[in-house]
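Run DUF1697 domain-containing protein through structure prediction, thanks.
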Amino acid sequence: MPGYALLLRGVNVGGNRKVPMAELRELLDGLGYTQVKTLLQSGNAVFEADGPAAAVAEAVEAALAERYGVEIRCLALSRDELQAALDGNPLADLADNGSRMVVGWLFGPAPTGAPSPEELDPERIAVRGGLVYQWCPDGISNSPDVAAFLRREWKVAVTARNRNTVEKLVAAIP
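Sure, done. The structure for DUF1697 domain-containing protein is below.
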């Protein structure tokens, strides 16, 4: 059975859209997934599930909508996909602190001809396919808000994790 990391977008941040991790584990168990564990409080889980990643993410989104009454976007990613995101980071040489190196996964394709978030900080932001990398040497809150830019300019949602979290997810996938 394939192992996945599940990334929930926009939960438990700033007191918004609360999804207690114990309830997330229950929900995933109820969907028949096995070896379920959550990491941190920001919507990360690992588990084994039959089926392709897109179907797993859709099932979790539907279960979350039923339970909480709001849309919560999800991505299910394999260990290989997470590792490829780490390995493909064009800004990796800048990072001396994994908590300040961020990778974001787009929930849709990048539009052609639209302004790029790289324009916000060309030395510290890079787009590679469906991934957006950002180096935040002064902290995330003191760096350009790439997610807001993507929502406004590209009309695409993104969920992001720092390098330390991605490394923990890679190691924790069953």
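The chain has two domains: 3-77, 83-163.
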